[in-house]
Design a protein that fits this description.
With about 210 residues, the chain is mostly helical. The protein has a single domain, classed as Four Helix Bundle (Hemerythrin (Met), subunit A), CATH 1.20.120.680. Helices cover about 75% and strands about 0% of the residues. It contains six helices and no strands. The relative contact order is 0.15.
């Protein structure tokens, strides 16, 4: 059964067990999915209500973009655990002969690269979801504005959690160009994404004072 198809209690029980996966990467993707789902909820609680007619274009855009982001982040929940399992399987390959050692090393390299690409993609999805969420500020039903703040917090956590899962693999990536790319782009995505998340949260918090 896919992680995304589990009941909440089943997922949490598996998460709390001694199984090495799912772990922080899958949890980060789940947090991101929760974040954009909340933004979609706000858009749907705005769209169709005549007193918020001026907000309809933004909400419609949110639903279009957010629905795809939600689907991608849900997929990332399982993708991260699958990538971890690939790395584990590679390390368990035989290494008795030089040929086996060579094959094992190559498999570890490819699996580690994939295990880095998956959370890196989650980071970009979260940053995009934050940009979508930000547009709802002042363009959505004010009665559910706190949910936008919670959406931002979930997406911020998801972004930073995914970044940790990228960082832990960087030392094992042999290709210097790929390693430099993940490092440079990752720092930029984190900076841009957290800035948006903080702006959303602080703006909403200030609106209650």
């Amino acid at each position: 059964m896919k992680l995304a198809d589990m009941k909440i209690t089943e997922f949490l029980q598996l998460l709390s067990s001694d199984a090495p996966a799912p772990g922080g990467g899958s949890v980060s993707a789940l947090a991101g999915a929760q974040g954009i789902a909340l933004a979609l909820m706000v858009a749907n609680l705005t769209f169709g209500r005549e007193r918020y007619a001026d907000f309809f274009p933004v909400c419609e855009e949110t639903v279009t973009k957010g629905t795809k982001l939600l689907s991608d982040l849900i997929e990332s929940i399982d993708k991260d655990t699958e990538a971890f399992n690939e790395v584990s399987a590679a390390y368990q390959m035989p290494k008795d002969t030089d040929e086996q050692k060579q094959a094992r090393s190559a498999a570890i390299g490819l699996a580690t690269l994939h295990a880095t690409e998956v959370p890196f993609e989650s980071m970009k999805l979260c940053a995009e979801a934050l940009a979508v969420t930000k547009k709802l500020i002042g363009n959505s039903n004010p009665n559910v504005s706190s949910d936008l703040g919670v959406a931002a917090l979930n997406l911020r956590s998801a972004l930073l959690g995914s970044w940790l899962n990228v960082k832990i693999n960087l030392s094992s990536i042999k290709d210097p160009e790929k390693k430099a790319y993940f490092e440079k782009e990752g720092v930029a995505v984190v900076a841009a994404g957290t800035a948006i998340a903080d702006e959303i949260y602080e703006t909403i918090l200030a609106s209650y004072e």
